[in-house]
Amino acid sequence: MLFLIPIIVISLYVGMYVLRTDRTSDCRWRQTGKEAQSIAWRCQVCGAVAQTDKGEPKHCGAKPGD
Fold first, then answer.
1. What are phi and psi of 19, to 5 degrees?
2. Is there a contact between 30 and 47 (Cβ–Cβ < 8 Å)?
3. How confident is the model over 33-57, as pLDDT tens digits?
4. pLDDT of residue 7
5. CB 40 within 8 A of CB 49
6. Domains in the chain, number
7. pLDDT band at residue 10, thresholds of 50, 70 and 90?
8. Strand order in the sheet with 29-34
9. What is the pTM of this model?
């Protein structure tokens, strides 16, 4: 019985890791500058940088294919 508790806790952590989604690791964009025609953004999670005309970026800059 004493060994059952650590096995349950480890199983929960493994299950949460397997069932995680990309949404939990999405970028968190912060505005770093503003020019005449665009806004500069930097991700606090992955360090990606982006320029947009209006609004924050919609995709992670560090993930290929986005």
1. -90, 5
2. no
3. 887 788 898 888 778 888 888 877 7
4. 94
5. yes
6. 1
7. very high
8. 29-34, 39-43, 49-52
9. 0.51
